[in-house]
Amino acid sequence: MDRGAHDAALDNAWRVTGYMPRDGRDELGQIPQTVACFLLPHDKPGLGARTEANVRMAAAALIIVRKDDDPRVTPGTAQTVDLVTLRHLPQMIVDPATNPTKIARWIWSSLLAHRTLMLPFGTLSREPQQEPPRLLVAGPRESKWPGARAVTATLLRHTARSLIDVQTQP
Q1: CB-based contacts of 143: which residues, under 8 Å, 6+ apart?
Q2: Omega prior to 146 cis, within 30 of 0
Q3: What are the chain's domains?
Q4: Quick one: pLDDT at residue 169?
Q5: Per-residue pLDDT tens for 65-97?
Q6: Is residue 128 predicted with pLDDT exceeding 50?
Q7: pTM of the predicted model as reported, rounded to 2 decimal places
Q8: What is the pairing mode between strands 25-26 and 29-30?
Q9: Is residue 158 packed enough to be buried (19+ CB in 10 Å), middle (13-18) or exposed (0-12)?
Protein backbone atom coordinates (compact mmCIF):
# COMPACT_ATOMS: atom_id res chain seq x y z
CA MET A 1 0.00 0.00 0.00
CA ASP A 2 2.85 2.41 0.86
CA ARG A 3 4.37 1.89 -2.57
CA GLY A 4 1.08 2.81 -4.24
CA ALA A 5 0.90 6.03 -2.23
CA HIS A 6 4.50 6.79 -3.16
CA ASP A 7 3.82 6.07 -6.85
CA ALA A 8 0.88 8.49 -6.90
CA ALA A 9 2.77 11.12 -4.92
CA LEU A 10 5.69 11.08 -7.33
CA ASP A 11 3.33 11.17 -10.32
CA ASN A 12 1.65 14.30 -8.89
CA ALA A 13 4.84 16.01 -7.64
CA TRP A 14 3.59 15.72 -4.06
CA ARG A 15 6.15 15.71 -1.32
CA VAL A 16 7.34 12.28 -0.22
CA THR A 17 8.87 12.30 3.22
CA GLY A 18 8.87 10.33 6.42
CA TYR A 19 10.52 7.25 7.80
CA MET A 20 11.22 3.80 6.46
CA PRO A 21 12.43 0.70 8.31
CA ARG A 22 16.06 0.93 9.39
CA ASP A 23 17.22 -1.57 6.75
CA GLY A 24 15.48 0.30 3.91
CA ARG A 25 13.35 -2.71 3.09
CA ASP A 26 9.67 -3.47 3.14
CA GLU A 27 7.98 -6.82 2.59
CA LEU A 28 8.53 -6.54 -1.16
CA GLY A 29 12.27 -6.03 -0.76
CA GLN A 30 14.49 -3.00 -1.04
CA ILE A 31 12.49 0.23 -1.19
CA PRO A 32 13.16 1.77 -4.62
CA GLN A 33 15.82 4.49 -4.56
CA THR A 34 13.37 6.92 -6.23
CA VAL A 35 11.41 6.85 -2.95
CA ALA A 36 14.06 5.84 -0.41
CA CYS A 37 16.05 8.99 -1.19
CA PHE A 38 13.23 11.01 0.43
CA LEU A 39 12.84 8.81 3.52
CA LEU A 40 14.94 8.51 6.64
CA PRO A 41 15.75 5.11 8.08
CA HIS A 42 14.15 4.82 11.50
CA ASP A 43 16.61 4.14 14.29
CA LYS A 44 14.52 1.24 15.62
CA PRO A 45 13.94 -1.97 13.64
CA GLY A 46 10.56 -3.01 12.33
CA LEU A 47 7.53 -1.44 10.78
CA GLY A 48 5.77 -0.51 14.06
CA ALA A 49 8.34 2.09 15.09
CA ARG A 50 8.31 3.55 11.59
CA THR A 51 4.51 3.74 11.65
CA GLU A 52 4.51 5.54 14.98
CA ALA A 53 7.09 8.08 13.76
CA ASN A 54 5.14 8.76 10.57
CA VAL A 55 1.90 9.30 12.52
CA ARG A 56 3.71 11.76 14.81
CA MET A 57 4.70 13.78 11.73
CA ALA A 58 1.21 13.85 10.20
CA ALA A 59 -1.47 16.53 10.39
CA ALA A 60 -4.15 14.16 9.06
CA ALA A 61 -4.52 10.59 7.86
CA LEU A 62 -6.16 9.01 4.86
CA ILE A 63 -6.49 5.30 5.54
CA ILE A 64 -7.20 3.12 2.53
CA VAL A 65 -8.54 -0.37 3.22
CA ARG A 66 -10.26 -3.08 1.22
CA LYS A 67 -13.62 -2.35 2.93
CA ASP A 68 -14.12 0.92 4.77
CA ASP A 69 -16.31 -0.76 7.40
CA ASP A 70 -13.32 -2.88 8.52
CA PRO A 71 -10.36 -0.49 9.01
CA ARG A 72 -8.74 -2.67 11.69
CA VAL A 73 -8.24 -5.50 9.20
CA THR A 74 -4.52 -5.94 9.90
CA PRO A 75 -2.39 -5.28 13.00
CA GLY A 76 -0.43 -2.50 11.28
CA THR A 77 -3.52 -0.72 10.05
CA ALA A 78 -5.15 -1.11 13.47
CA GLN A 79 -2.02 0.43 15.03
CA THR A 80 -2.23 3.37 12.62
CA VAL A 81 -5.95 3.92 13.34
CA ASP A 82 -5.27 3.78 17.10
CA LEU A 83 -2.33 6.22 16.91
CA VAL A 84 -4.22 8.66 14.67
CA THR A 85 -7.22 8.53 17.01
CA LEU A 86 -5.03 8.99 20.08
CA ARG A 87 -3.49 12.10 18.52
CA HIS A 88 -6.95 13.41 17.55
CA LEU A 89 -5.86 13.84 13.93
CA PRO A 90 -8.47 14.39 11.25
CA GLN A 91 -8.89 11.07 9.48
CA MET A 92 -10.82 9.57 6.64
CA ILE A 93 -11.14 5.83 6.12
CA VAL A 94 -11.90 4.86 2.54
CA ASP A 95 -11.99 1.85 0.27
CA PRO A 96 -11.45 1.51 -3.50
CA ALA A 97 -15.14 2.21 -4.16
CA THR A 98 -14.97 5.62 -2.49
CA ASN A 99 -15.59 8.44 -4.91
CA PRO A 100 -12.30 10.34 -5.39
CA THR A 101 -14.25 13.61 -5.36
CA LYS A 102 -15.44 12.79 -1.83
CA ILE A 103 -11.82 12.30 -0.76
CA ALA A 104 -10.78 15.51 -2.52
CA ARG A 105 -13.56 17.46 -0.78
CA TRP A 106 -12.45 16.05 2.60
CA ILE A 107 -8.84 17.04 1.90
CA TRP A 108 -9.98 20.48 0.79
CA SER A 109 -12.45 21.21 3.59
CA SER A 110 -10.53 19.55 6.42
CA LEU A 111 -7.01 20.55 5.51
CA LEU A 112 -6.49 22.88 2.59
CA ALA A 113 -9.20 25.43 3.32
CA HIS A 114 -7.74 25.85 6.81
CA ARG A 115 -4.18 26.05 5.49
CA THR A 116 -3.16 22.92 7.39
CA LEU A 117 -1.98 21.47 4.10
CA MET A 118 -0.90 23.40 1.06
CA LEU A 119 -1.15 22.29 -2.53
CA PRO A 120 0.72 20.80 -4.22
CA PHE A 121 1.55 19.17 -0.88
CA GLY A 122 4.91 20.90 -0.87
CA THR A 123 7.85 20.02 -3.02
CA LEU A 124 9.87 16.87 -2.97
CA SER A 125 11.98 16.96 0.16
CA ARG A 126 14.85 14.92 1.54
CA GLU A 127 14.58 16.38 5.06
CA PRO A 128 11.49 15.10 6.91
CA GLN A 129 12.27 16.99 10.12
CA GLN A 130 12.21 20.31 8.29
CA GLU A 131 9.19 19.60 6.12
CA PRO A 132 7.03 16.96 7.80
CA PRO A 133 4.32 15.30 5.80
CA ARG A 134 0.92 16.74 6.42
CA LEU A 135 -1.20 13.91 5.00
CA LEU A 136 -0.34 10.37 6.02
CA VAL A 137 -1.66 7.73 3.63
CA ALA A 138 -1.81 4.30 5.25
CA GLY A 139 -3.39 0.89 4.92
CA PRO A 140 -2.73 -2.84 4.79
CA ARG A 141 0.45 -4.32 3.35
CA GLU A 142 0.45 -5.86 -0.10
CA SER A 143 0.79 -9.36 1.42
CA LYS A 144 -2.40 -8.78 3.43
CA TRP A 145 -4.23 -7.13 0.55
CA PRO A 146 -2.92 -8.29 -2.85
CA GLY A 147 -3.26 -5.47 -5.34
CA ALA A 148 -3.23 -2.73 -2.69
CA ARG A 149 -0.38 -0.89 -4.41
CA ALA A 150 -2.23 -0.54 -7.70
CA VAL A 151 -5.58 0.26 -6.06
CA THR A 152 -4.00 2.92 -3.84
CA ALA A 153 -2.08 4.54 -6.68
CA THR A 154 -5.16 4.66 -8.90
CA LEU A 155 -7.40 6.07 -6.16
CA LEU A 156 -4.88 8.78 -5.29
CA ARG A 157 -4.29 9.70 -8.93
CA HIS A 158 -8.04 10.17 -9.38
CA THR A 159 -8.19 12.12 -6.12
CA ALA A 160 -5.44 14.44 -7.39
CA ARG A 161 -7.51 15.21 -10.49
CA SER A 162 -10.59 15.80 -8.34
CA LEU A 163 -8.65 18.18 -6.08
CA ILE A 164 -8.08 20.45 -9.06
CA ASP A 165 -11.84 20.62 -9.67
CA VAL A 166 -12.76 20.97 -5.99
CA GLN A 167 -10.45 23.89 -5.36
CA THR A 168 -11.82 25.83 -8.34
CA GLN A 169 -15.46 25.41 -7.31
CA PRO A 170 -17.16 28.23 -5.42
Answers
A1: 27
A2: no
A3: 2-168 (3.40.50.450)
A4: 74
A5: 999 888 898 999 999 999 999 999 999 999 999
A6: no
A7: 0.86
A8: antiparallel
A9: middle
